[in-house]
Amino acid sequence: xxxxxxxxxxxxxxxxxxxxxxxxxxxxxxxxxxxxxxxxxxxxxxxxxxxxxxxxxxxxxxxxxxxxxxxxxxxxxxxxxxxxxxxxxxxxxxxxxxxxxxxxxxxxxxxxxxxxxxxxxxxxxxxxxxxxxxxxxxxxxxxxxxxxxxxxxxxxxxxxxxxxxxxxxxxxxxxxxxxxxxxxxxxxxxxxxxxxxxxxxxxxxxxxxxxxxxxxxxxxxxxxxxxxxxxxxxxxxxxxxxxxxxxxxxxxxxxxxxxxxxxxxxxxxxxxxxxxxxxxxxxxxxxxxxxxxxxxxxxxxxxxxxxxxxxxxxxxxxxxxxxxxxxxxxxxxxxxxxxxxxxxxxxxxxxxxxxxxxxxxxxxxxxxxxxxxxxxxxxxxxxxxxxxxxxxxxxxxxxxxxxxxxxxxxxxxxxxxxxxxxxxxxxxxxxxxxxxxxxxxxxxxxxxxxxxxxxxxxxxxxxxxxxxxxxxxxxxxxxxxxxxxxxxxxxxxxxxxxxxxxxxxxxxxxxxxxxxxxxxxxxxxxxxxxxxxxxxxxxxxxxxxxxxxxxxxxxxxxxxxxxxxxxxxxxxxxxxxxxxxxxxxxxxxxxxxxxxxxxxxxxxxxxxxxxxxxxxxxxxxxxxxxxxxxxxxxxxxxxxxxxxxxxxxxxxxxxxxxxxxxxxxxxxxxxxxxxxxxx
Length: 679
Description:
Layout: E1 11-14, E2 56-69, E3 75-87, E4 97-103, E5 111-123, E6 126-131, E7 138-143, E8 146-152, E9 161-170, E10 179-180, E11 188-198, E12 201-208, E13 215-233, E14 236-259, E15 277-286, E16 291-293, H1 298-307, H2 323-329, H3 336-350, E17 352-355, H4 365-371, E18 373-375, H5 376-389, E19 393-399, E20 419-426, E21 429-433, E22 452-456, E23 463-467, E24 473-485, E25 488-496, H6 499-512, H7 514-525, E26 529-537, E27 547-554, E28 562-565, E29 587-588, E30 592-602, E31 607-611, E32 616-620, E33 625-634, E34 637-646, E35 650-651, H8 656-670, E36 674-678
Parallel strand pairs: 2-11, 17-18, 24-30
Antiparallel strand pairs: 1-12, 2-3, 3-9, 4-8, 5-6, 5-9, 7-8, 10-15, 11-14, 12-15, 13-14, 15-16, 19-20, 19-22, 20-21, 22-23, 24-25, 25-27, 26-27, 28-36, 29-35, 30-34, 31-36, 32-33, 33-34
């Protein structure tokens, strides 16, 4: 098996302080120029990172960020992108569609200009070029704060080389544009990113991934900036003044070459965690006389978040306008826990979440209450406000969901935190609440919240909490009874589900209905089994596990000399989820597993046991998991007890072979049949 890379590399540094070498880094303007390819350039590059299955090859990807003075007396960043791609087949045609999202709040919008694009094709040894027409650049309003500039490169076909560039200018320099050296789908021959930052701005740089840089060098430079600010005389704006600032600059250049695509493997929380990538967050500023910290500790981040009008500030003031609604919600309920549950379930059932990836308030809480909808930030911060107004201690908790990627416990990188829940402290017990998913019970979280570090944002006891997949225990118990009936074997099935599966079933039934849910179960059995009465117990009791029940009749050939019978109904591991010979990344399961399956089978009249599978027990890496298969005959009954248990959710890549072999044994064992012979 190949040597596994480190599962994730996160290096946090202050860019200004990380310079180890001094040399000249000047932006190469030729990297932003269009160069018509030669006929030989259309030959698909050969190399170990390129195979026949890829839809495109990224020939070069270049980005650069520098700063200019702006009208606010400070700095705006200028981000330039130039990309060249060879389209190998139609699977990659979407790469010819380019979208740039711009923040346009207030009177200081981000802008994009210098948009240019060209498509090159080779016909009979002659290279043709089709340029993007300016009239084919479109603008769409995404919401009140965002617009989208977009264009599609013309004349794209299989074999085309496409090339495009644009320049974006933004006064919002809290986060610089991040850079992904690696694609999740396509190999990249050369990826390069350069920055030049005035030493009035200091950034934390987060580096992640497993591939080394071909070039990773920094230096110092010097630049002059023209800044403009409004003149204020006695509180009256009398004009503008322009002044020049000379500043030392920090330069850095990162280059990677021949980067393979990140091929997604099963049971990986998100490829985002493993892409070769760098990102930036403002740490502090210098105004010529004093340094000012910006979100460079969790204490500072908490202080800033509590003051934000789209996060903490709306939770601090008294909200008399909620009193009438709260009185109605809690009418007839005197016990505090009952009141908290009433407020939670009201919020969950009366508000629809429109965006599960925005952890702040988009408009204001009045508007959320009026519309009965909003982002996860709108809904759960409204829940916190309602609980506080009723006198409860409720605080927001920021986290990143599994599909969004890891966040750092030691340093507050806020753009990695896409989700917010509520911590309720009541009677010495802590409850974590999420009203953005109507299928969750009080005190429950969806499985994708179990992604490690989360942060309580409070002016009293802010701190870190951890929701680990290893702490989420999914237990399922299934019991199947089969007895002789008038037309053959008749049975009952009962499965008590764990919290995650109960949540998933509630979501599924909410989407398709209970009748369709059981219809799909019937379809999965085919014509060999017919469902009778069906029931989902505790479907509306969200804090309780769901119990799936149904009766069924087996259809068997009348008078057959031999009966072949698989004892598993529904709960069978049909395929090994780990088929590859080796694995590059760790195995990240969403929860620990404890599945118990019990079968009692009455031997059909006129038949006897010809062959039973053998009992077996297997351990996984000592005490990390186990598989138990115990089967026996007692009089005219066959009894089976099968249990699959994984005591941890996350396994390093080094454990992949043992995990693969473990599941291979499970699949083989559960496929074995009971053979009955006619007397």
